[in-house]
Amino acid sequence: MAGPTTAERGERQQESSGPPPARRWRRPRVRTIVILAVLVVLLSAGALWALYGSNWLRVERVSVSGTRVLTPADVREAASVPVGDPMISVDTDAIEARLRQKLPRIDTVDVVRSWPHGIGLRVTERTPVLLVRKAGNYVEVDHKGVRFATVSQAPKNVPLLELTASRSGSAAASFRRFGTDRLVREAVTVAGDLPAAVAQDTRTLQIRSYDAVSLELSGGRTVLWGSGENGRDKARVLTALMKAAPDARHFDVSVPTAPASSGS
Length: 264
Known about the structure:
Layout (H helix, E strand, L loop, with lengths): L5 H12 L12 H24 L7 E5 L6 H8 L12 H11 L3 E9 L3 E8 L4 E5 L2 E5 L5 E5 L8 E4 L8 H22 L2 H6 E8 L2 E6 L4 E5 L4 H14 L5 E3 L7 E3 L2
Parallel strand pairs: 1-3, 4-7, 7-8, 10-11
Antiparallel strand pairs: 2-3, 4-5, 5-6, 8-9, 9-10, 11-12
């Protein structure tokens, strides 16, 4: 009888010897641990020194963008960015708060770090949609109803708001119920819904009561708008009405489903 082959003998030897022993994990030496710890401490200390102690990462310039009426110098002065201080220590929230407090004309502001030496101030100014006359000057009102600035000269193409309601009689109910601020916001809503061509041509926006808003356009033309409700429908109807009756002097869109024009 023939004996086992060479391959069979190899398989039997492997089965008898079992799997190879696993390689044992060796603990790092104490010296290696100490060296790594020292390196971490040195790197951390170096990073802190670079951020706070060195002259490499300090504020050297302040850039301003987005101004229209304000000047970059106005914004930089109000921001009071600590030039020379470490970039990492600049309180961007505090800068934003100072700008909002000192310059109400600013609607939004973004304070950003421009490494390694700059602070950027990106501002968006409020845009007036109405003017309120006050002691010979004009108070600018934005689309949120915020009265943000007083100017001596009226900006072009911004309507003047007139609250003409009497404090007695039936019109007084609007003042008692809504108050002046609410009526101003209502006027702002109407101004925002006006067609672009009409808005540029509007000279005065009058409010006699909450639901009696009217416009005075150039050339003595008038528009009875009514309340601020259904503003988009009224704007669309007014545009069509003006095209259909270009010589009319008076337009009524207070009820947009039944518009009227007269005085050609």
